[in-house]
Amino acid sequence: MIGFLASVGAAFLTFLEGVGRLALFAGRALAAGFTPPYYPRLILRQIVYIGYFSLPVVGLTALFTGMVLALQSYTGFSRFNAEGAVATVVVLSVTRELGPVIAGLMVAGRVGAAMAAEIGTMRVTEQIDALTTLSTDPLRYLVLPRLLAGLLTLPALVLVADIIGVFGGFIVGSYKLSFLAAQRGSLRVSSTVCWKVGRFWKGAGPMSIPEATVDRLRSKHSGVGVLSHSPWP
């Protein structure tokens, strides 16, 4: 029994040690950004590499996620004559949960592995030692641009994933589930996309800032209607 508790304690201490090393590493990298020299070209290059080149995989994944979510939600809700709740479920699920998760996983899978392999190769080939010999801080030159680029581009990728995911649900609802050919010639397909200044999902901060843009799509048998503002539900 004592040996089991000792093994559990050792594993927990090892976990805390890893978390502490990661926190110290991130703190040192961020602290390096407050003193010159700066490398704006490297930061812009990483912004393009992390943000722009991740748009296809993030957008494609979010699109099919929204489409599948709308289709499966309709299958369950149609049994209880609650088809009108499909739009709300799709929008809230994508904007609050699936959008950030999809963007984070895609960026981590695509960019994180490439960064680890690149910096690991530089360590093996002694390129990082060469930077130190040339009086260049490796944290400032290698880590800080990637860290800042990730912090700047990931929220934008989350926003793109939210919009494309909701659009995917709208496509399925319009052309697969025949929402446009509903009773009385029209069916309101309400999709709520909230852009909150200073935060991107509910509960991200305690500040009370007026919500900016929330759209409600109203579709009729002749096509998609207008955009009108509405409060967050």
How is this structure best described in words?
With 233 residues, this protein is mainly alpha-helical. Helices cover 64% and strands 6% of the residues. The protein has helices at 2-31, 40-50, 55-77, 86-124, 127-133, 138-176; strands at 186-187, 215-220, 223-229. A three-stranded antiparallel sheet has the order 1-2-3, with no helix packed on it. Strand 2 and strand 3 (223-229) form a beta hairpin. The longest helix has 39 residues, at 86-124. The radius of gyration is 23 Å and the shape is flat. Mean pLDDT is 77; it is low at 181-233.
Task: Describe how the helices and strands are arranged.
Elements: H1 2-31, H2 40-50, H3 55-77, H4 86-124, H5 127-133, H6 138-176, E1 186-187, E2 215-220, E3 223-229
Antiparallel strand pairs: 1-2, 2-3
Using brief descriptors, characterize the structure shown:
233 residues; 3-stranded antiparallel beta sheet; 6 helices
Tally of extended strands? 3
Overall spatial form: flat
Q: Low-confidence parts, pLDDT < 50 over ≥5 residues? A: 181-233
Radius of gyration: 23 Å
Derived structural class: mainly alpha
Distance between the first and last residues' Cα: 52 Å
Q: Secondary-structure element order, as H and E?
A: HHHHHHEEE
Mean pLDDT comes to 77
Query: Mind summarizing the main beta sheet?
Result: 3 strands, antiparallel
Summarize, please.
Helix 1 packs across helix 6.
